[in-house]
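[step 3/7] fold_predict: job queued, chain A
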Amino acid sequence: MDTKKPDFKNIEKCLDIDTSCVLSHICYKYSAMVMAGLIEALDYFGGSQAPKVLRRLLAKKIPMEMMKAMEIDPSMLKKFSEEEIIKILPEMIHSKGGPKLTIEKLDNGSYRFTLNECHFLPYSKSKGFCNVTAGLMLGFAQMLSGKPMDIEEIQTIAKGGEVCEFIAKPKFLDKK
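[step 4/7] structure written:
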């Protein structure tokens, strides 16, 4: 019987959200389970506005923190045009272990985000995790447009869709 002591340095490293931990360590599973419970509680107690509030809160910080965790300098994106970022960002995310993502700019100033896999599904059957992905995509849309946006969930793998698809639309219409 092996009675090794737990490696607390690795646990602390995980709690500091090290990239390798987030993408491949068991802490991801436990973080996902805790987050699922929090999302379900928010949905239950927060009423119909809870998902929108959650998405907005996540959109403020998660995209930049995710990029930092993947060792991508967010300031370097300022060197590229919107069209270049739409192409480069998904490639960078996928090269660092993230899902395959496509970003398409639509005619009306909106963006379509399509993900071919759900990173949360193996760890939680909570459909509330779609709000986490929506918040992340909303943050990317606001980063691309430089404007406040709203996001609509079109379909998600967790809810039986073939892909996760979100449309981010400008929150306010530009008056010309």
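[step 5/7] annotate
Residues 1-26 have pLDDT under 50 and may be disordered.
The longest strand covers residues 149-155.
exit 0
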